[in-house]
Amino acid sequence: MKKSLKNLRSLRRIKIVVQYVGTNYAGWQIQPNQKTIQGEIENAIFLALHEKCEVVGSGRTDAGVHALAQVAHFDTTSKIKAEKICYVLNEYLPRDISILESEEVSDKFNARFSAKKKTYQYNFYVSKIPLPCFAENYAHVPFDFDILKAQSVLDEFIGEHNFAAFCSSGSKVDLKDAVRTIYSLKIWQTDKQTYRMEVSGNGFLYNMVRIIAGTLIEVGCGKINPKKIKSIIKSKNRKHAGKTAPACGLTLKEVDYTARIRKKKAA
Amino acid sequence: MKKSLKNLRSLRRIKIVVQYVGTNYAGWQIQPNQKTIQGEIENAIFLALHEKCEVVGSGRTDAGVHALAQVAHFDTTSKIKAEKICYVLNEYLPRDISILESEEVSDKFNARFSAKKKTYQYNFYVSKIPLPCFAENYAHVPFDFDILKAQSVLDEFIGEHNFAAFCSSGSKVDLKDAVRTIYSLKIWQTDKQTYRMEVSGNGFLYNMVRIIAGTLIEVGCGKINPKKIKSIIKSKNRKHAGKTAPACGLTLKEVDYTARIRKKKAA
């Protein structure tokens, strides 16, 4: 879309924080003839601010994946107070998408490229029978699960590694570009039958969080030997890691733009 | 339905434990032209066991209310092993209703009249903006909430009281029949913005749990003076208690048929 010089001068960059339930969407990114989160937000901006804007997210989330606080930005000529834009957009958004905050930021801020750290949650429940109360936000694990076994391998993932073994083959990422840093990885029991994995890193490959979750679940279920995790990472071969855990268990929890990450000191 | 003597002799009473998401249902109890939990289960029994059976629940849950473990019973002539009936029925139930267990019980067992203790959870979140990730299972509280204030009044509810002030006026219960015993009442923060109330008692009046939840929320939000709770209970007047909190926050957690309740000893 052409913008006059005058418009360009008055363009403001708005950062938004978005919460959504991904169940009914084909993911974040706009696709033809599909309901997407990005598409719904761009539509709300068009209806509320009468502008066609491209909304840039911190990253794409897959179909069925949720977000507690996805971050995105867009540029607008609207004169509405930045802090009020979230309320205006929410009027035009469906019930399963909500803008939690909006603020004006420098045009050097980029929701995708300025992100320093991302945190994901992966929820699952353990039960022989599928449990309706957990169907939307939890993966179903129908086997016995030993949390101590899963916890015993967490340290292997921490730090900088080539995570090619934890990247879906559909991805276009070069094997050499598969180096990522995981800052923290935890897994704990949240209630009688429910568990949560939480992982923070400087970025994640395609399906990487779901494959780590699937691998930890298989370790806890006795299907992957805990001693093999180190060699699975080193193999850089997707075939050796666990299954990709289902999308419904995954939630983008936080995107951090300020984090100064402490480097591990030698002991 | 008429049953021959032979059939009567071979009737077995089956106890089932049911989990459901109440969002898309007009409540537990069968009603004409409405989707109900009881209706779906009776339909599944008809399709799976080729019998018309009445399913008796421990109590009705309202439209939109969920259950982690509702209990019910029905009588059947089916020869299928009692423990397998849950799997057979689940084949015919929608995704948001699931039978967790089935077992044969004495015909003296009655899911409604044998219940000794019920436990409900009430979930809510505190945020100025509605949060999609909590829309299905949490009530939305758009005001500041002080958990310590809410916790300061819990003891007033414990024990045997006439809870007429906490019974919706639509109920047919006589004022004199409004005496119930609350065994425990707790409220705590479950995550950054989420809270849970849990209450156990020998039985609950119509909307009683939701009115207690609404009252505790109003105490925490500074709308009801904590010192007034005692007189609100004593008033037996519905007008003095807080609002009925929304159905979506309520979950029937457990029905206990064995509990020997310790009576409070005089100090």
Separation of the first and last Cα atoms of chain A: 56 Å
Uncertain parts of chain A: 263-267
Helix content of chain A: 10-25%
Specify the structural class of chain A: alpha+beta
The largest contact between protein chains, plus residue counts on each side, is: A-B, 24 and 24 residues
- Report on the biggest sheet of chain A: 10 strands, mixed
CATH class of the largest domain in chain A: Alpha Beta
Oligomer: homodimer
Give the second-level CATH assignment, the architecture of the largest domain in chain A: 2-Layer Sandwich
Q: Encode the helix/strand succession of chain A as letters.
A: HEHEEHEEEHHEEEHHE
Mean pLDDT of chain A: 92
Q: In one word, what is the shape of chain A?
A: globular
The proportion of strand residues of chain A reads 25-35%
CATH topology of the largest domain in chain A: Alpha-Beta Plaits
CATH homology superfamily name of the largest domain in chain A: Pseudouridine synthase I, catalytic domain, C-terminal subdomain
Number of domains of chain A: 2
Radius of gyration of chain A: 20 Å
Count every beta strand of chain A, where a strand is a DSSP E run of 2 or more residues: 10
Count of individual helical segments of chain A: 7
